[in-house]
Amino acid sequence: MRELNFLAAALLATCLLVGCAPRRPGEVPALVHAPDARAEVVQTTAGPVRGVASAQGRAFLGVPFAAPPIGALRFRAPQPPAAWTQVRDATQAGPACLPRYRFGQKHVSEDCLTLNVYAPPGPAPAHPRAVMVWIYGGALELGSNVDYDLSALAARQDVVVVAPNYRLGVFGFFAHPGLRGEGEGAYALLDQQAALRWVQGNIAAFGGDAHNVTVFGESAGAWSICYQLASPGAAGLFQRAILQSGSCLASDSSVPQREAESGGVRMAQRLGCARRRDVAACLRALPAETLADAAPQRRGLTGSDAWAPMSGGQALPLPPAAAIASGQHAQVPVLLGTNRDEGRLFAQLLSYIGKLNLRSGYEARVQRMHASPAPVLTQYAAVAAQSRWEAFADIVTDGGFACPARRLGQALRTHAPVYAYEFDDPHAPYGLLRLPFSSALGAFHAAELVYLFQRPWVLSGQAQFSPAQQAFANTLQDYWGAFARTGDPNGSGRPPWPRFDGDAPLTLSPHRIGATPDFVQRHRCAFWDARADTATTSVQPSSQ
Predict the structure, then answer these.
(1) Residue-range domain boundaries for the chain
(2) Domain Carboxylesterase type B, which positions (predicted)?
(3) Which of 278, 349, 351, 503 is buried deepest, with most CB atoms within 10 A?
(4) Residue 430 — pLDDT band, cuts 50, 70, 90?
């Protein structure tokens, strides 16, 4: 999985070059600025919050679900927020969590543990609505709940949608022996669990059903949900899960405690916090920017410069693959899938920033991604002879997304219903990045989001759907909404979606919704399944 972190980092690096900065707090959702917007106050367990209601829906933004993880609370499990008595403004989203790549943003902070709530318009229903909790992606190093306008999903599907922030990068995944017993190495996962506990205690006040909660996420958000399936701390906090373009069965999906702590010790030494007796206090006293800027120096300490949660600790007692293989995971209905051309976006980005030289760099890039690259190069030799760009994209799609998702579905289906899909619109609106080039990206990574949310999101402009694409967007969203309400995506007026039988997923396309008989062959899953535990990033340890 760490090679996917690297590729996501390439996307972030491209953003640095072309300036695709996240939206500012308050820009999402549009209903906040609607002409008929009016104030609405809701009482939470910590105090009253004033959001916005209009004919488009209701929104409560920047609501604290945990105490600020700063000072003495840095590198600790999230704590409950302090109560307040005066009505708190909830019409502006809180800052993004301080990431490794800040793009010069002003609206980022270590004090970031807030969530946004979106609900349909009108009074509270006679029966509580299903709840969907969105976990955003971003390689576990970037992203924010303000990047997504979830109001249309809430209104059209008649659900309550919650979008929490969670700590990123060094703040979310740092481990050190001096931090044992305090959630070390997986603070981000504990933040997500704290948000889910907030839902349990508060969502009824927003018209939601605390006993009907679906977690859903894309890319690193899907990784996070996969981790939560394997985390004892998340037990009972959700009843079903949707994983879009992400899984966690690779051997490097988590970092063993010894390895994670070793990397933390070396980083602490670099930062002048070497003595174990006072290392925790020293690390907590450092400026947040110092820690964020030091994070890239971590390269090599745990095999790569990518962050992943620690296994062997509070959040993940077992590696996710071991927990799922042994049945020690949340046995809930799951909807999961990938996009047909996931890797094309990454190939394009690497080409753009000069990290994938199509003449001489293809083999080197594959060698960087895989500990045993020769079989991979042989498997894709015929494709590479025609186009090394296409071969690299296929390797990423097949080995990083399609086949791992299929394996995860196979593991989960023995305990609960699984519905699997492959998103396949070859003409998906290309607004993900405003790059000075274009290519046939097909159904690229994250292309389904604008269909699901039917709103622009942080890295896109306004989607220009054809009539067929608009109808498909409605159908796709209806599948997701039905699954959130009942655990089954099927319903009147939609093509049937059979349970995953362990073989191939359902194709979701504007032009066809049906079986995908060529999935296993097209994505070379027999090859990737055979080497499932050997495809890891190979990076030499740093000498620093």
Answers:
(1) 2-353+397-515
(2) 40-528
(3) 349
(4) confident
